[in-house]
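Sanity check

After download, print the first record. It should look like this:
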Amino acid sequence: MEPSTRPPRAREAGGFEVAAVLFDLDGVLVLSAGSIRRAWTAWARRHGLAWEAVAPHVPGRHAVDTIRAVLPGRAEELVERDARWVNERQVHDVADVAPVAGMPELVAALAPPAAWAVVTGCPRALAVARLRAGAYPDPPVLVAAEDTRRGKPAPDGYLRAAARLGVDPRSCLVVEDAPAGIEAARAAGMPVVAVGTTHRPAELLAADVVVAAGSCLGVHCAGGRLRVVARPGPGPRGPEGPA
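Expected structure tokens:
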């Protein structure tokens, strides 16, 4: 259920005091634009389209939602078949997937009992493949495409993660890289830090803070609470590109 009112910000002087950190995957924990672009370009060519026609509909979204946006009216069974095809190509294409600078160290600082989760529009098999390619530990909670009916910008994934962690959604901090994900976090009533790996700063203004990389974030765990400190940066669009 979506919060009926927007709660106060969890941001305090010197950082965000929260109970859990919820990470998007692509562009936040891992750089995967090469794999994403290769798969979607191959799919686009099968339909007489260019990557440029598809790219604006990819960031943060379920593959089925991207296909519905690009090919409106396509039969649903074909949409689902195409989504499986695109996702399976990416599962086996992780050679150049790499962690975002500073994020492995940030995740390592969230050792148990710290609460954290990954919320992604990827199906579970693809999310696991990318997390392993980035050498991340298994998250306590992983909310993937199969776990929600609606993808971002709907808040369902972030609300599901908070529920599985057993924390109030209002006490979660989201780390995102895409406007659709920021919108999802806002709809869930959660403060959000944007990482400027895939989008220009002007596209991320709905976030509370924009940072250039994970190295601009620090975390301190004490008494079951987390204090996340964000050092704002220019957040220039990096080599990740649309993802």
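If your output differs, re-run the checksum step. Summary of this record's structure: The chain is about 30% helix and 20% strand.
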